[in-house]
Amino acid sequence: MSHAPETTTQPGDIARLISYVALFAVSAGLFVEAAIIPTSRFEVLGAGAFPMMVHGVLMALLALAIIRSLRTIPAQAYAAFPSVALRWARDKRLVIVTFLFLAVYLSVMPLLGYPLATLGFLLVLTATLAPKTPASMAVTVVLALAFSFGLNWLFAEVFNVFLPRGS
């Protein structure tokens, strides 16, 4: 019975390794941010204790996954990765466009506020991805209005939580 690590030639394993490293870096950054959350005099652990525990466990699991990936990925998989990554990006271009729209949405929300930024995001995204029929465009407009101005009203009036208003 051998306990030798399994090997694979899948370039997807390289992408998985890169995602582990990226998630580790993000989790480490969030751990540091949680550590600087001020504590109140009424709490023993402080507001950042739970996020620090979550990100600490996540970093430990990701470190184990990184080590395991490094042990099991053969050298030839690294050579095949660029061509496979380009093919994947071409095949998944709508997913990439969606994330680019999301990045623009999140970056303009402080300027425009939640209602306008969400309305624009939903209109552009659904107009890009949905069928181009009059009925689907009407549904798009109704849903965009409901999820932008409707949710803003709901949170403000019912929950007394105010979403970003913009500058």
Automatic annotation (TrEMBL):
Residue spans crossing the bilayer: 17-37, 49-67, 94-117, 137-163
Chain ranges of the DUF1468 domain: 21-164
Source organism superkingdom: Bacteria
Classification via InterPro entries: DUF1468 (IPR009936)
Keywords: Membrane, Transmembrane, Transmembrane helix
Protein's UniProt name: Putative tricarboxylic transport membrane protein
Organism: Citreimonas salinaria
